[in-house]
Amino acid sequence: MRIDLHAHSTASDGTDTPAELVRNAAAAGLDVVALTDHDTVGGYAEALAAVPHGLTLVTGMELSCRLDGIGMHLLAYLFDPEEPELARERELVRDDRTPRAHAMIGKLRELGVDVTWEQVSRIAGEGSVGRPHIATALVELGVVPTVSDAFTPDWLADGGRAYAEKHELDPFEAIRLVKAAGGVTVFAHPAAVKRGRCVPESAIAELASAGLDGIEVDHMDHDSETPARLRGLAGELGLLATGSSDYHGSRKTCRLGEYTTDPEIYGEITRRATGAFPVPGAGGATGA
């Protein structure tokens, strides 16, 4: 089985619609794909209606968190999307994205970059606006060559010249909320140092004690030595070790299935989940 547990659609900051995402996952030879848009479940209905035969969809979300001033992302899988407490918190995070984007645009304009809300809004479309949309605007304007190059201290990285904070969850509270909704939690790209400061491994141990289920070990933003170290840490802490593409369509260079999760780990994730269940494809809709 080929299993990719981290992918984004136009419901947040990907360029594939949810329907295109599941069809592209099947075309890439995946058996399982997880839809994990940022702080939203808005792509679920379209994706579920379009899952083709031979592909299983795992519903999920990537929650924005912050620990001791350091941003981190928590992947949540197979939770009940209607659970009211978790739904309320994700909406608070999502609703704060628009004023944050306006603040970052204002900082960029002060730095002499002729970016506008209209441009960023066009790029985001119906998605939950975020830094990747602003980064794409910087690429369009010729300020940086790629989206990744916008995530530096000069521009949009945590603490960067154009960075603005938003409402983010305490990860310990996020773990509690996801667990209460019957879900499973995995710390996304925990050692992606190119994105900025990372939480220390001592904090990962504390999160594990609080109920964290796993850490994303194999990821494009980890250097060549990191996966082995993280896999060892996962073993020490009793955490599941996953691998995922973090696919964003054409917005990033990663491909669906570029990194995958071991079937036994996937099986354990599904066994732990009680809020929702993987959905095997029934043919899917033909429209986009």
Written overview of the protein:
With 288 residues, the chain is α/β, with parallel strands linked by helices. Strand 2, helix 2 and strand 3 form a beta-alpha-beta unit. Strands 1, 2, 3, 4, 5, 6, 7 and 8 form an 8-stranded mixed sheet that branches. The mean pLDDT is 94. The relative contact order is 0.19. It has 10 helices and 8 strands. The longest helix is centred in the middle third of the chain and has 14 residues.
Structural class: alpha/beta
SSE pattern: EHEHEEHHHHHEHEHEHE
Number of helices: 10
* Strand proportion: 15-25%
In the predicted model, the low-confidence regions spanning at least 5 consecutive residues are none
Total count of strands: 8
Largest sheet: 8 strands, mixed
Rg computed from alpha carbons, rounded to a whole number of angstroms:
18 Å
Can you tell me the overall shape? globular
How far is the first residue's CA from the last residue's CA?
Answer: 26 Å
The helicity comes to 25-40%
Instruction: Provide the residue-averaged pLDDT.
Output: 94
